[in-house]
Sequence to fold (188 residues):
Amino acid sequence: MKHKAVLYSDFNCPFCYALEERLVALRLAAFVEWRGVQHAPELTVPMQLANLGFAQSIEREVVMVKELMPEVDIAFPIGKPNTLKAIQYSIAASRQDPLLGLVFRHTLAREFWVNGEDISDEAIIKNVAHQFQLDSLRVDSAAESEADRWQREWQHLGTGAVPTLVRDDGETLTGLQSVEALKGFFGE
Fold:
């Protein structure tokens, strides 16, 4: 029997992006409940250009992702966006249609990690929504509350890390994991 898991993930973390791509490739995404969190809520809207030190940190992370997962399509962004609106819109999209919400969320992530778009910008988010005929997509108080609840749950875990997978039996796994580790974690 395959286990199910909750994934705490942040759009601006390259390891989260790569892990989600790997979960899709392994056909494990159906066993995962995504919960968007902000591991760096202090990031600004709009996204600021990274200073030299921050840019070097981003570059190290992306290089590490490419070493761990060479097949992933990822570029070097010019900064990191605040992700609260992207999380809230992803919740709203998933409530309208869970499968479409998943595709919407993955497209938003690629807009940032492949195309370098500022996904803190509601115009960018709404453009992605339009691609999926989600023109009426709005963030309501329920989506805001859900995002707040997920943030508190993740903070309560105490890992301080994203991505974090929490299996249905309570076992946790953090970081970008190998194919073998993920298959073992999900009971394949």
The chain is about 50% helix and 10% strand. The mean pLDDT is 97. The CA atoms of residues 73 and 100 lie 21 Å apart. Residues 52-68 form the longest helix (17 residues).
